[in-house]
Amino acid sequence: MDYIKYKDLTLLEKTYLPQIAKGLALTLQQVFRPKFTRQYPEEKWDAPASFRGRPVLVQEDNGVERCVACGLCSRVCPALAIEVQASETELEKERYPEKFEINMVRCIFCGFCEEVCPEEAIVMSNEYELVFTSQNEAVFGKDKLLVPRKNLESRLKFLKEKR
Question: How far apart are the first and last CA of the chain?
């Protein structure tokens, strides 16, 4: 059996002084870099396609949501923030979500729901401004979650490239 012999540390390395010096040097570099401040309310931040904002449901051009109410998003959600109730429909897809709610206070913006969705029906948008005055306002139903597909093109394109 072959054993891997690791290099013995020198006395200086055992004191961790070189690592401490490297850390201090990195900190000092950051201190003397030019500062950047965005004047937030007046100057909005344009989020990149990789940004995970609030989750939304994709609404097709004909006004129908893509979701087939499989319930995978609610099962994979670690915060138990998603609730889906399915119903039958006469359209080409057999099911649709009769009730689809996300409790935004519980949502941790992990993106698991987006990853597990077989239809790419739920995606993380670029919206980051969420303000609530009560717990009830934080529960988003289909009325607040449905977003037209054309508004989510950059995120959908990003997801297609990464898969």
Answer: 41
CA angle 81, 85, 87 (to 5 degrees): 160
**What is d(CA 146, CA 63) in angstroms, rounded to the nearest whole number?**
9
Residue 86: Cβ-neighbour burial (10 angstroms; 0-12, 13-18, 19+): middle
Tens digit of each residue's pLDDT (9 = 90 or more) over 23-63? 999 999 999 999 889 998 899 999 999 999 999 999 998 88
What's phi and psi for 112, nearest 5 deg?
-60, -40
Confidence check: pLDDT of 64 > 90? no
d(CA 116, CA 71): 10
- HSE-CB at 94 with a 13 A cutoff on CA atoms is 1
Model's pTM, two decimal places?
Answer: 0.76
